[in-house]
Design brief:
The chain is α/β, with parallel strands linked by helices. It has helices spanning 8-20, 25-31, 69-79, 82-90, 123-143, 167-175, 194-201, 221-237, 243-248, 256-262, 288-294, 296-315, 322-337, 354-366, 398-403, 425-442, 446-451, 459-462, 480-501, 512-526, 537-549; strands spanning 50-53, 56-59, 117-118, 121-122, 156-160, 185-189, 209-214, 249-253, 269-271, 341-346, 384-386, 410-415, 470-475. The protein is globular and about 80 Å long. The structure holds 6-O-phosphono-beta-D-fructofuranose. The site of 6-O-phosphono-beta-D-fructofuranose has 14 residues, from loops.
């Protein structure tokens, strides 16, 4: 297989980059004044660097590209076989090669009248079977028909899970709080740090508390530890009556045996499948806490939003395909400009956990250094994703984005409408989206400063070089459906990047070594007798020091 850096499209992009890297966004706009204009229904033109569809409006005109760049990037995607790989995902081929699995999160949101047969099983039918059970369960809890062990209604729901079994549920709950049952309390326990469990439960009544134990594997150390602690906490309130477990614990997992060994009746287990990766699972049964919060109908809206983008991604030509455009631009900066990070800046308080969610999605997926056939990659792969909601970030780290020495492409996510309109807050909020992207692109020149009469000594400090690239993603309003649009948009951007790099975006072997070493170190920390340690000097000393501090030495 031709190495990526040897492909003809890559070479064309490298020489194209040499020309464009010297050109300022000011010149690009001067030479192509309409590049940021929307097409308003007219056929797509390469001169209009905006795209709209499936609930999202993407303005990518403030990127360091000209009319040649996107076609060259699209040619790279074609040469790397990205469209064929995309089709292989949608049809259930085993594209997760290192785990020998299909990658079918897109099946989680296919409508009930569709069918997708994989290995003789209609996975869409299975998905809807679980969705029906989830809906019935959520209705029972939300209506108060299904009570706790002592007959009291369930008022508190605690999701216990970590990674993909936590970040999606927390992010979705926070994002969709306005649509949630405000009389119910939702909390999330992920970290094995005992403080996480303590703070989540300290003021709750076990008689009114339901634990949703969420773990794809049902073996994850943190989740199993917290689940056992939760059971003890519950049983302590019920005088050790284990019959209470059935009323206060449900499980979401692919591992029925593990669930039943834990003591949860598999009738109270909501399953999913090994073809759903943890970081792609918030719309599977892992979304049970989301459904409990917003109800089955709104959960369906969320799924519809995902599906809308899936269809768009599968069928739209690359030059108008929003997730593909985003993924191609990520390649452009990471590989040709050598950028290392990408900021995601949602201008919505409700999306305050969105960057954290995206970190797992993007970095666990594309933090790889070998290709599908096990060869070392010939180019850089996944960037570091990070971010915070605006405008808060503006008063913190934006300084470095504006005037630092790093080039950091940014995604600005804005909404036309607030869910809680008060005075002119929304106009002020959105004015900052537009102002930041404008100033990052165009900056302020020394001449402009001198014309304004700025003291010559201050001119260098107050100069904004500009030429900082941004995408602006505008959404009408944050709803379950548009949240689905947004998450699927990033899922498929990640796919596009991974397909071009030729890596497996769906495994995560890199997290295993640390887990195995932790399992070895636990008994060394806990043993009563001084353990024989065969670590490096740093690790062994740290272990001894900790043991002394805990009075074990
Ligand atoms: O350690 C990484 C990881 O495997 C993630 O990929 C996953 O989302 C998380 O752990 C939790 O796994 P599980 O749902 O099996 O508990």
């Amino acid at each position: 297989m031709t190495r990526l850096s040897e492909t003809s499209a890559w070479k064309s992009l490298a020489s194209h980059h040499e020309q464009i890297a010297r050109i300022h966004l000011r010149e690009l706009f001067a030479g192509q004044p309409g590049r940021g204009e929307s097409n308003d229904g007219s056929p797509a033109s390469p001169a209009n660097l905006v795209a709209e569809g499936a609930g999202l409006y993407l303005d990518y005109s403030k990127h360091r590209i000209n009319t040649e760049t996107m076609p060259l990037l699209a040619a790279l995607a074609e040469e790397c076989g990205m469209p064929a790989r995309r089709e292989a995902m949608f049809t259930g081929e085993r594209i997760n090669v290192s785990e020998d699995r299909p990658v079918l999160h897109v099946a989680l949101r296919m409508p009930a009248n569709r069918s997708l047969v994989v290995d003789g099983t209609d996975v869409v039918r299975e998905v809807h079977g679980v969705l029906s059970r989830m809906s019935a369960f959520c209705e029972e809890i939300r209506s108060g028909r299904r009570t706790g062990h002592t007959g009291r209604p369930i008022r508190n729901v605690i999701n216990v899970g970590i990674g993909g079994s936590d970040l999606g549920p927390v992010m979705a709950y926070e994002a969709l709080k306005e649509y949630s049952r405000r009389d119910l309390t939702f909390r999330f326990v992920s970290n094995v740090d005992d403080t996480g469990f303590y703070e989540a439960t300290r003021d709750l009544d076990p008689e009114e508390t339901l634990f949703v134990i969420s773990s794809k594997t049902f073996t994850t150390l943190e989740t199993m530890t917290n689940a056992r602690t939760a059971r003890e906490w519950s049983l302590a309130a019920f005088g050790g009556d284990t019959a209470a477990v059935a009323k206060h614990f449900v499980a979401v997992s692919t591992n029925a045996e593990g669930v039943s060994d834990f003591g949860i009746d598999t009738a109270d287990m909501f399953g999913f499948w090994d073809w759903v990766g943890g970081r792609y699972s918030m719309d599977s049964a892992i979304g049970l806490s989301t459904m409990l919060a917003i109800g089955p109908d709104r959960f369906q809206d969320l799924l519809d939003g995902f599906h809308e983008i899936d269809e768009h991604f599968r069928e739209t030509p690359l030059d108008r395909n929003l997730p593909a455009i985003h993924g191609l631009l990520a390649i452009w900066y990471r590989n040709f400009f050598g950028t290392q990070t990408q900021a995601v800046l949602p201008y919505s308080e409700y999306l305050h956990r969105f960057p954290a969610y995206l970190q797992q999605l993007t970095m666990e997926s594309n933090g790889k250094s070998v290709t599908l056939d096990g060869e070392a990659v010939s180019t850089a792969t996944g960037a570091v994703f990070w971010g915070e909601p605006g405008t808060n970030g503006q008063h913190s780290f934006y300084q470095l984005i504006h005037q630092g020495t790093e080039l950091i492409p940014c995604d600005f996510i804005g909404f036309n409408h607030s869910l809680n309109p008060i005075g002119n807050h929304q106009d002020l909020l959105v004015s900052n989206v537009f102002a930041q992207t404008e100033s990052l692109a165009f900056g302020k020149t020394p001449e402009e400063l001198r014309d304004e009469g700025v003291d010559a000594a201050l001119v260098p400090h107050r100069t904004f070089e500009g030429n900082r690239p941004t995408s602006t993603l505008m959404v009408d309003r944050l709803t379950p459906r548009t949240l689905g649009n947004l998450v699927a948009f990033y899922e498929h951007s990640v796919f596009t990047q991974g397909a071009i790099w030729g890596i497996d975006s769906f495994d995560q072997w890199g997290v295993e070594l640390g887990k195995a070493l932790a399992r070895k170190i636990v008994p060394e920390l806990e043993s009563e007798n001084e353990p024989g340690l065969d670590h490096d000097s740093s690790t062994s000393s740290l272990i001894r020091r900790y043991r002394r501090a805990r009075g074990r030495a």
